[in-house]
Design brief:
The chain is α/β, with parallel strands linked by helices. It is built from 16 helices and 13 strands. The protein has a single domain (11-235, 297-303, 333-453), classed as TIM Barrel (Alpha-Beta Barrel). A hairpin with a 6-residue loop joins β8 and β9 (317-320). It starts with 10 loop residues before the first strand and ends in a 7-residue tail after the last helix. Bound molecules: 5-hydroxymethyl-3,4-dihydroxypiperidine. 5-hydroxymethyl-3,4-dihydroxypiperidine is lined by residues 17, 20, 167, 301, 363, 410, 417, 426.
Length: 460
């Protein structure tokens, strides 16, 4: 039986981020980002790796784009490195850095690939960390908006899809720990949870101010999105009481109530504020209005979720721990939860009451223990299974009428997986880092077939 196809204009894409693939960290005027500095600290990155060379995409972007075009990928989500464009974080613009992205976008368009540019994927300028401690300061929001304005006024003639910030929780809550070393990301140990929440509040403010800056600077109509990895709550069984429990849990689960909720509804969830008490961030008059900007789309980075069931005691739901044998891909947090795709989309539309908002899955993928065989192939049937299940759940959402507009696989290439260095491979293309050879994995061929068919292909 033929499966439901996505709508004819469904955007099939692939995603990457600057620091994870570009390399060339000191070329053409780029100055260090906080990730360059973090990688220099002993013991922070597995095997002492860094993004200094990464996939050398800075020099190989043309062949990488040709590879993407050969797979039939029509949309590419990449990020811009703030410290290439405004090397000191504020002040003068480095035109050589802008030129790199101009060449990249021109090359994409020559191959019929639509660019989707993320302004910030974690690599903030080190100069701003030295000046005021990055996200600890409200000044970061204004500097980010100025950077957004600088790039949109220069590249807005060629780029119509802008994404402001990627996954706020990861560079704030994972970077600014309380009384412990920040485990995964650059940041500082801060004395209170309030100060951690203050960093994510500043990031939300930066998002809102950047939206305003983009609208003011764009020379043509454009789409603006926020990209977030909120935590989908999945009803353990799809019965009315468990669905209601998952809906009740969603706005207060993880950091949902303090990141995706204010961005899309204009308020921090009251239960979260109550739970935080004196640890709630300071919110100035007008902040929530700035944060709650009109958006043209929302980017949902989707990897996993949590199961929820109804219960008799307050608060009326229970978040369930994963059993020890629950299947995972090759990351400690990557439990395989395909229904998180469907429920994530449904919660955005229905639970947060934003049925108007077009949704893109801006990242989905997994790390697997890929091996190159004697024929120089990588047969990653485990990744195909993972992607197939998630895409089928995306189809269910689309079929039920939720406004899902596209899907970007994470990632086009194996790349620098942050604190895990090059040890974890998320690509549909294998990168032999010693030679920089690219080997499209079997999942790349499978993904190309899905794009051609406009539906996730069955593997049986
Ligand atoms: O590699 C990261 C990416 O930078 C942000 N989202 C999750 C991916 C996998 O961990």
């Amino acid at each position: 039986m033929r499966r439901f196809s996505f709508p004819a204009d469904f955007a099939w894409g692939a995603a990457t981020a600057a620091y994870q693939i570009e390399g060339a960290v000191d070329q053409d005027g780029r100055k260090p980002s906080v990730w360059d500095s973090f990688c220099n600290l002993p013991g922070r990155i597995l095997n002492g790796d860094s993004g200094a060379v990464a996939c050398d995409h800075y020099h190989r972007y043309e062949s990488d784009i040709a590879l993407m075009a050969a797979l039939g990928i029509k949309h590419y989500r990449f990020s811009l490195a703030w410290s290439r464009i405004v090397p000191e974080g504020r002040g003068s613009v480095n035109e050589a850095g802008v030129d790199f992205y101009r060449r990249l976008v021109d090359c994409l368009q020559a191959h019929g690939i639509t660019p989707h540019a993320t302004l910030f994927h974690w690599d903030s300028p080190q100069a701003l960390d030295d000046r005021y401690g990055s996200w600890q300061s409200r000044e970061m929001a204004q500097d980010f908006a100025d950077y957004a304005s600088a790039i949109v006024s220069r590249l807005g003639d060629r780029i119509q899809h802008w994404m402001t910030i990627n996954e706020i929780v990861c560079f704030t809550h994972l970077g600014y720990g309380v009384n412990e070393l920040p485990p995964h990301a650059p940041g500082t140990i801060v004395p209170s949870l309030k100060q951690v929440w203050q960093t994510s509040h500043h990031a939300l403010l930066a998002h809102g101010m950047a939206c305003q800056a983009i609208r003011a600077a764009t020379p043509q109509p454009c789409s603006i999105a926020l990209v977030d990895n909120f935590l989908p709550t999945i009803p353990i069984v799809e019965t009315p009481e468990h669905i209601a429990a998952a809906q009740q849990a969603f706005p207060i689960c993880g950091t949902n109530g303090g990141i995706v909720a204010p961005a899309l509804t204009g308020v921090y969830h009251p239960t979260l504020l109550e739970q935080l008490g004196e640890n709630a961030p300071d919110i100035q008059a007008n902040d929530l209005k700035i944060i709650h900007q009109p958006l043209d789309a929302f980017g949902f980075n989707n990897y996993s979720g949590v199961y929820v069931r109804a219960c008799d005691q307050s608060p009326g739901y229970e978040i369930l721990a994963f059993p020890t044998t629950y299947p995972k891909m090759q990351m400690p947090w990557l439990w395989i939860c395909p229904d998180s795709t469907y429920w994530g989309i449904r919660h955005l539309s229905e639970t947060l009451d934003r049925p108007d908002l077009p949704i893109y899955i801006t990242e989905n993928g997994c790390a697997a223990a890929d091996q190159v065989n004697g024929k120089r192939e990588v047969i990653d049937t485990d990744r195909i299974l993972f992607l197939q299940l998630y895409l089928q759940a995306a189809q269910r959402a689309s079929q039920e009428g939720y406004p899902l507009k596209g899907y970007f696989v994470w990632s086009l290439l194996d790349n620098f997986e942050w604190a895990w260095g090059y040890d974890r491979r998320f690509g549909i293309t294998y990168v032999d880092y010693a030679t920089q050879q690219r080997i499209p994995k079997t999942s790349a061929q499978w993904y190309a077939a899905c794009i051609r068919a406009n539906t996730p292909i069955e593997t049986e």
